[in-house]
Amino acid sequence: MSRHLSPHVSRPAERCVPPTAGLPLALSDLFGRVPGADSDLASGLARAFNLPWARIECSGTAALVIALTALQRLQPGRNEVIVPAYTCPLVAIAVAHCGLELRLCDLQPGRPDMDLDHLERLCGARTLAVLPTHLAGRVTDVAGAAALARRTGAFVIEDAAQALGARIGTESVGTQGDIGFFSLAVGKGLTLYEGGVLAARDPALRAACTRASEALARRHAGWELRRTLELVAYALCYRPALLGVVYGRPLRNALRAGDRVDAAGDLFDLRIPLHRPGRWRQSVGLRALGRLPAFIAGCTDRARRRRAQLESLPGIEVLGDSPVVPGAAGIWPVLLLRVSDAARRDRLLDRLWVAGCGIGLPFAHALPDYRRYASVVPWQDAGALPNARDFAARVLSLSNSPWLDDERFERLCAALVAD
Ligand SMILES: *Cc1c(COP(=O)(O)O)cnc(C)c1O
């Protein structure tokens, strides 16, 4: 430990670190020929990650809406969807969009995985789907959840929104459930500014997803123009010199206003845009995809080194993949830290989040504790979902962006033990 280092994790001229390790776009991704053999992004992704089938949608949330719609048509008598109680609020919004009922599953103590005893009690004749979730790239136990779901005739949708590139042995995550989905949003790795990917093995489910997608997600010139401009702006601005303006300043404003929901990037519209992502944006993703495997490998190396160093700090645990999944090899957009107690976690957040050094929250709250989403999340009394709420109160995320350099990481470690 470098005790002599300044406790100030950011020096005045230092630049802001993005909250996750997103793959930076090169300007050459915007133009020119697509290298390689694949003519479209879906087949490029299928080849790169050994997916049996892939379909591009306009967001991860849209992919989930399409998956739920497809399953609903196959099982119209079922209307409940079980999700982990600590996950992206967009999941709750998607379930409400489909007119389905959300059921919240508690987490395992100290882990982002669903508690299988609670899941077993929630599963029943009305369960349409269960959503095991690879939060922050950490591989979860899909097989355990699937065994419980299938016993009651429910489907499994694997939420791999934050886990494109994570594997179990040689298999990609997202392929063990009946349907899997990935996000191509900003900050989740490869990006089209907004985008999503559906995956499925079974030909009947692929056909059902395709039908639902064709019915729900039509071409829409207005949305495509907007996303095109946003993607170009992202390609220009996602670089160290500009992040302070496009990310750091709004972050500081949100924190100054005491708004952790805004600071965590959890302010979502309750209406979900559904449209077909255009060819040009998909070609940008396909050009960038060539660099993704090496980028993921670099993130994995850095995470391995930093995880060992963070684990040596008192009262800080770095969460790994589920220990019950042999061969799990997650990806590392962030390192998920669990702090010894909630008060200490809050003091660290108060001090470090504004510094723009990569410390923040994956999500601001467990789902029932957002006032903003009360209309799409069932009310829970204060004693319910104890593990999910404890997890939400003690977790921190640390960016694994290559722009957080070793020297600054050392200072951050010193600041983490200074509390
Ligand atoms: C981001 C996210 C989604 C939604 O994906 P978008 O592409 O942002 O719509 C769903 N689930 C989880 C766990 C996520 O992190």
UniProtKB/TrEMBL annotation:
The keyword Transferase applies. Pfam families: DegT_DnrJ_EryC1. The active site is at residue 188. GO terms for molecular function: pyridoxal phosphate binding; transaminase activity. GO terms for biological process: polysaccharide biosynthetic process. The keyword Transferase applies. It comes from the Bacteria. The modification N6-(pyridoxal phosphate)lysine is found at residue 188. Gene3D superfamilies: Aspartate Aminotransferase, domain 1 (3.90.1150.10), Type I PLP-dependent aspartate aminotransferase-like (Major domain) (3.40.640.10). Keywords: Aminotransferase, Pyridoxal phosphate, Transferase. Belongs to the DegT/DnrJ/EryC1 family. This is DegT/DnrJ/EryC1/StrS aminotransferase.
